[in-house]
Amino acid sequence: MAVASASDSELIERIDHALAVLQGKWKIHLLFSMARGVHRHARLLESLPGTSKKVMIDTLRALERDGLVTRNVFPEVPARVEYALTPLGWSITEPLVVLAEWAEENYAA
After folding, report:
1. Strand pairing report for 69-74 and 39-40
2. Which of 19, 42, 47, 98 is an S-S bond match for 33, by CB 3.0 to 4.6 Å?
3. How far apart are alpha carbons 71 and 20 in whole angstroms?
4. What pTM value is reported for the model?
């Protein structure tokens, strides 16, 4: 039986960190919704059928905390809030698409 090398352990640790950033039921949904452009609060909530406003806000805050999303509040009455992917957020979309393609190709297996 082969034992994982130090470089394997480092690779696994980096993957674990990446997966921790994406862990959560709605994070990937929100990332893909925002990849289609800047979205306002209500439009994002519509893209998450079956979730609550609180869960969406908590998820957006986590994505913002991790540097994947920006939140822009416009000084209007009523206040307008828009969310968008940061460059870091955009950089994760390509690996997610590749993962989705892999899943489709290997679904039967």
Report:
1. unpaired
2. 47
3. 21
4. 0.84
